Every structure is written in C-alpha cells, then in structure tokens.
UniProtKB/TrEMBL annotation:
<feature type="domain" description="HTH cro/C1-type">
    <location>
        <begin position="6"/>
        <end position="59"/>
    </location>
</feature>
<dbReference type="InterPro" id="IPR011990">
    <property type="entry name" value="TPR-like_helical_dom_sf"/>
</dbReference>
<dbReference type="InterPro" id="IPR001387">
    <property type="entry name" value="Cro/C1-type_HTH"/>
</dbReference>
<dbReference type="InterPro" id="IPR010057">
    <property type="entry name" value="Transcription_activator_Rgg_C"/>
</dbReference>
<dbReference type="Pfam" id="PF21259">
    <property type="entry name" value="Rgg_C"/>
</dbReference>
<dbReference type="InterPro" id="IPR053163">
    <property type="entry name" value="HTH-type_regulator_Rgg"/>
</dbReference>
<dbReference type="Pfam" id="PF01381">
    <property type="entry name" value="HTH_3"/>
</dbReference>
<protein>
    <submittedName>
        <fullName>XRE family transcriptional regulator</fullName>
    </submittedName>
</protein>
<dbReference type="InterPro" id="IPR010982">
    <property type="entry name" value="Lambda_DNA-bd_dom_sf"/>
</dbReference>
Length: 281
C-alpha cells in the first residue's frame, strides 16, 4: 500500500489550504509542513488531524511512519487526553532508553514528555543529570528553526532558571535568523521567549527575566504583530511591578484586552499576573 500524506487526506475531503489551516496556523506554515520543509508543534498537529477527521494513530498507519513518529503520535494522543499515567510512562521509558543507548532523540522525547507532565501535575520528572545532558544538547544548537524552538518551548518548565536564561540568550542571538525564516518562526521564537520570562518570574528569578526582556526590547516588532507588542508591554509592566508592586499598568493592559474582546488573552495575562504575585507574597 502506498503511504498517504496529510495533503492527500486533506484533498480527499475537499479542503483547500485555507480551510484546513483556518484558526490553527497560517497557510504558509501548513504548506511547508505538507511539503516536508517545515514543522508543526504537538497541539497544532492534533488540531489539523481533527480538521480532517482522523486520529494521530490512524495517520501513523496511513502515512507508514516510523517508530519515532509512532512515539510522537502516542505522546500527542496522551497530551490531548491529559493522560498523566501515559505521559509519565513515555517520559520514563524514553529517559531509560537514553541512559541505555545515549540516544539523543530519546532524551529529547523524554524531556518533552516531562515538560507536558509538569504542566498537568506540577512535578518535574527530569533528574538533574538528565537536565544537564539536555541543556548540553540545547546549547549546541546553532540554527533555531521551529523544531528546535518547539523543543525548548515544551521543556521550559523542567529546566533550571540558569538553563532557561542560557538557552534564551542563544535564541535571542538567533532572532534575526528567525525573522528571515518567516513570520511564523519569528512569532514562535518570540512567544517562546515570553514563556521563558514568565517561567523565570514565577520561579522568583526576576533578574534573569529582566535581562532577557531588556534584550527583547531592542527588537522592532512589525506593527501587524499586535499581540507581540502587547505581550512585551505586559511583561515589562510585570518587571516594573516587582519593586513598587503597583499593579495599575498591568490591570490597564488586561482591561484593554477585555475591551477589545480578547477575553482569552486577558484571562491568560491575569493568570500569569496572579502566579507571579503569589511568588511575592
């Protein structure tokens, strides 16, 4: 049987690129993914498969994908179902495979699974020696495309503050490359750095967070990237709030988002503010 790719499945259902990508990713991002020249993160992949009415495991079989993709599909399924037990098992098995074989891909999947598990259970399964090994791999990255950015994004929560700061510094140095690689890559890189700043503030490391943000403040964001501009302003307000603890500028941004009808973004900003404020109490 000839393998069937996502593009064929989409076309079989009469969906064009715009219809398939709507509300999930840009048309350009989907096109590059279909043609094998771009990557797609876990949650977007799951949404795209839902759009064409197939499961991740069905896609693995239809596309005749290898064991590595099978593991990726299994992890995607576990995350979609918020299956703590399965995610934990994938993390343990992948990290055990890394210890036995020194296979970096197993380390990466193990770290990602640990990151997803932390989001659900607030428990870090990644041991110190594994964090150091993973950090070593991240520190060797010279080209920060979407795949490597996704690797960092999904593991921020299980890295030490010092590691988050070091890897963020590398990514900032490559932001010009990300911008040249396209708006999707630049947006993903920037929002990943926002997540790093938030993680550092929540872990009570404001000096690291402020250092990253100062560097981000030097970048000119396109006017069309309104949420990036607002997001950066919000984080600057959080940094400024650390000393005088004046919340007016923060609440002003949240209220502005509510007035604009951006309820979900306002809710996310409020959750971040509450998490940072909790650390300071």
């Amino acid at each position: 049987m000839t393998a069937i790719n996502f593009k064929q499945i989409r076309q079989m259902q009469g969906l064009n690129l715009k219809e398939a990508a709507s509300g999930i990713c840009s048309i350009q991002m989907l096109s590059r993914w279909e043609n094998g020249t771009g990557n797609m993160d876990f949650e977007k992949t799951l949404k795209l498969l839902e759009r064409v009415n197939i499961t991740s495991s069905e896609y693995v079989h239809l596309a005749n994908l290898d064991d590595t993709y099978q593991l990726s599909a299994e992890l995607q399924k576990a995350w979609k179902q918020k299956d703590h037990t399965l995610i934990k098992r994938i993390a343990r098995n992948s990290l055990q495979e890394f210890h036995l074989t020194s296979d970096i891909l197993s380390l990466n999947y193990g770290a990602i699974a640990c990151g997803l598990y932390h989001r659900l259970a607030k428990v870090n399964l990644l041991e110190i020696d594994e964090q150091n090994a993973f950090n070593k791999e991240l520190s060797m990255i010279t080209v920060w495309g979407q795949e490597n950015i996704s690797l960092f994004f999904n593991t921020i929560q299980v890295l030490s503050p010092k590691m988050i700061f070091q890897i963020s510094a590398q990514l900032i140095e490559n932001l010009d490359f990300a911008k040249q690689a396209g708006s999707d890559t630049f947006y993903f890189a920037t929002t990943t750095l926002f997540e790093a700043v938030i993680a550092l503030l929540i872990s009570d490391n404001p000096s690291y967070a402020a250092n990253i943000l100062r560097q981000l403040n030097h970048f000119d964001f396109p006017q069309r990237e309104t949420m990036l501009i607002i997001g950066r302003k919000f984080l600057n307000s959080l940094i400024d709030w650390q000393e005088p603890q004046n919340e007016q500028s923060i609440l002003k941004i949240i209220n502005f988002l509510l007035d604009m009808g951006l309820t979900m973004q306002a809710k996310n900003f409020l959750q971040v503010y509450k998490a940072v404020r909790k650390v300071k109490k």
